[in-house]
Amino acid sequence: MLSSDAARRYRLSESEEWRKLLRLFELGDGFAFVVLTAPDRLGLAACESSLAHFLSARGQSLAVLTTDPEEIHTLPERLLSLERAPACGAVWITAAEDGDSERAAWRHAAAALNQQRNLVVRRIGVPLIWAGGPWLQVVLREMAPDLWSVRTMVVVIEPVRAPLGEPAEQRRPEPLETVEEAPDPGLALEAAERLRGKPGRERQLADLLARAARGLAARGDTAGALVRLDEAAALFAGGVGADDREALESAAEVEALAGRLQVVLGSTAEAGRRFRQALSMREGLVGRYPDHFDLWWALAASYTDMGDLMKALGEGEPARQYFEQALQIRQKLVSQEPGRADYRIDLVKSLARTGNLSNLKKAEELLLGLGDVPEKARLLGAIRALQETAKATGAG
């Protein structure tokens, strides 16, 4: 049975990715290889429960192959010997991963199944759904390329973006970029390969890897994006000149993006480390180049990242201090360039994050004064809901 927490966090009925999976069953039959990723165990359990319910309504069942850590190495044999019920509509495997040893075991299992692709297709005969964290897509694509080539579907499930008024622990970072906005990761990686091993081109190689990471992240390949970001960070650390402002900005952005992706994976300790590194770099940059507004904008983003993380960890006072620092910067930016709608939207979000009734009223007034800008309706609804909460709790 789907828990209320999972139902509220994921709302699968509203997910286009989830509807894509259900259409697979509605439009056809036979074998299909489905790679389903979700950022946490709650999401994976929600998907398994919801699919079982969907199939039950169709008079079918979901065969679930258990995968305790000690059973991973026997997965190929157990899958091929699985006795399916006549009404079985799909086979489900959850690839839980708690460390390097489990991930290595899953890589071995994927490679073993890949060697028996034709037998898997004949024996299973229904969609085989392999579910796990974002890392799973990378592992299966690398270790099971033959299996991947057979009618493969990738389903990326993400939590519903919570309005500003919901608790921080239910909130994920806002989407980094849409697929349409993000760079093509394939093109970026091809260009990066041509630069590998060429002395003096480390900076360009790092930029291309960062571009590829943005594209991968937009397409839901969080683990793959982090691999590229780690490589870019190592290049920046070893080859960036102390006076190269643009390179230092790029290095800080790599750390900030890595932190946001670690939040998606639930790795709060690593997210904090990357966020603090980005913050330190950006504080150093504004100290050296105080007249560059874009550096101040990036610094405010780092304070906000740290504030969101602290609030999610229940550290209320540090979160408040970070939010206040971001707010002060964004107020300054708006006063310097009042015509910038993007600066005003950022200020609205900073005012709202304080949860203070006076600031929430300022945020509403500022938002109403803007023209037709993206997110306006959603932000206005969230701010008004926060105002009601602030009135009820007496949050000044």
Question: Helix and strand string, N-terminal first?
Answer: HHEHEHEHHEHHEHHHHHHHHHH
Largest sheet: 5 strands, parallel
| Classification by helices and strands | alpha/beta
Let me know the number of strands: 5
Helix content: 55-70%
Instruction: Using the alpha-carbon principal axes, give the shape.
Output: globular
- Radius of gyration, Cα only, in angstroms? 23 Å
Instruction: Give, in spatial order, the strands making up the sheet with the most strands.
Output: 2-3-4-1-5
Termini gap: 41 Å
Which stretches are low in confidence, meaning pLDDT under 50 for 5 or more residues running?
A: 162-173
Query: What's the tally of helices?
Result: 18
Question: Beta-sheet strand percentage?
Answer: 5-15%
Q: How much is the average pLDDT?
A: 84
Notable characteristics:
single chain; 396 residues; alpha/beta; 5-stranded parallel beta sheet; 18 helices; globular
Descriptive account of the structure:
With 396 residues, the protein is α/β, with parallel strands linked by helices. The chain has 18 helices and five strands. Strands 2-3-4-1-5 form a five-stranded parallel beta sheet. Helix 9 packs antiparallel against helix 10 (202-218), helix 10 runs antiparallel to helix 11 (222-239) and helix 13 (268-288) runs antiparallel to helix 14 (293-312). The protein starts with a helix and ends with a helix. The relative contact order is 0.07. The model is unreliable at 162-173 (pLDDT under 50).
